[in-house]
Amino acid sequence: MTATTGTSGRRETVESSTTSLQARRRALRVRRLRRGWVALALIVPAALFYGVFVLRPLALTFQYSFYDWNGVTEATWVGWDNYTRLLHDDEMLGSIFNALELIIYFSFVPVILGLFTAATIRKFAMSRLAVVSRTVLFLPQVIPLVAAGIMWTWLMASDGVINQTLRAVGLGALARPWLGDFDAALPAVGVIGAWVALGLCMLLLLAGMTKIDPALFEAARIDGAGAIREFFSITLPSLKQEIGVCVSVTVIAALASFDIIYISTQGGPGNSTLVPGLEIYYLAFFSREIGQASALAVAFMVLVLAIIWPIQRLTRDAD
Amino acid sequence: MIIARREKWIGNGLLVLLMIVTIIPFITLLVTALHPAGSYPSGLELPETLHWENFATAFQSAKMGQLLWSSALIVLGVVPISLFISTLAGFALGHLRPPGSRAIFVAFLLGLTLPFQGVIVPLYFQMRDFGLLNIRWAIILPLIGLYMPFAVMWMRAHFVNMPQDLSEAARMDGANTWKLFTKIHLPLSMPALSSLAILLFLWTWNQFLLAVVLVDDATKRTMAGALGAFQGQYGTDIPLLCAGSLLILTPTLIVFLIFQRKFVSALLQGAVKG
Belongs to which family (chain B) (predicted)? Predict the structure, then answer.
């Protein structure tokens, strides 16, 4: 970021007549003021869209959360009731805990696997294979998450490829309908999310690693560091920002997950894969509990901010 | 250097493994789509005769023609308007810096991590009150607003790095703010704009939640939104569902493969800035 402030005409030539100097200053101020208004006018369209379709709904979510409303008849003020109910409801609380558990699969797994792979191929990041991989590994990022959900639903079905492979190698005892199993469903959904995020994380971290000065690695090797020592002393500290980006993006994807779960499990079996995004949708558009859905939405947004903000703080100030 | 060769071998092996894991779901989808419609195929075995006609059937029953048109209309509504107004705002906030621009920028940043589910409920009632429910504007207008935090931040980051001397020189030559923008800065912003356009296209085309909540008629939705309805309809006919899914993800795949260099750099930059 540059710190220039754009003050033109500060180096004015010394004028003999003070009146003309004043007149000029005034003219300059008028021009600057007018430019200020023009600049503000340029922001208006963006601000208008943002205000009407983000800020206003945001304020309304807060407002709705204090009402009991079915969307049709008169709404009644209930104060903090929706929030108290939220704290005592297993279904809604469970959805929040499920989302937190998904962070392990959507975020930790791709980031750690991505770090491992990127560190291994760092030295030949420019090889032909590595260049091809940039295209291939991005494929899951390009297709709709819904399509990823459909693909994996079929892969994980009772007679899907995963179970067939397990049976073929003699591990048939492990086979199960992954997305329909109470204990396996959430990790199974997690696998889909990890599959989507892995390529992006790996390539982002690799891009970060290629920016590290090679002399650092050489120096470490000369000082007798092995691959593991090198990774923890040089690679990892230099990647603070990239890791921060990967973690933020994937944690948001975990907390705000909707598409994959809507398609693959609809929150079931039972409520074992229910997440806040889906529960808000069900509460508002199926059970018509607008107030309750809004209270959950508020809690959900606070949770996202509470988790993302520290990550951003921790990883941004380094640079 | 035996160690280096071994490292290279392990690294390449790992990379190939990663690519296989990425591609297998796509291959399964294709193989399954080639089985007889209504059958329950077993894994990665190819059937005796390849049923390419499944694609034609799925194309018709998913009303793919209409869907492509619908998605194209939505993208054409969202992307140009978003690009235009976010560039104006980014130019003002990053380059002209009128008084108060810092506060306005912070207000935009507030929306950067906002999950769409946080505002979807009031958005539904708002669109209903505007009388826009179930038409494409119900997806287009909110998406423009929801993309603004990211788009404005993206364009501002570009304009912050443009030298002020450039503008001063243009001012000396008598350019007003509008001329300065259209004649000097817009042509210089093309790389930033095209990357942003790619990201917005992708996110719009793949938008699911807004499409499902705000538009009932699947043929007026985005591709991704329509896929949800298609799954409900053909959830039990696996080969047909797979053929339909492939058809629906093909357009983005084609666009991606054509512009892959731009896509990859846009996706990498987009993640860093977001």
Answer: Belongs to the binding-protein-dependent transport system permease family.
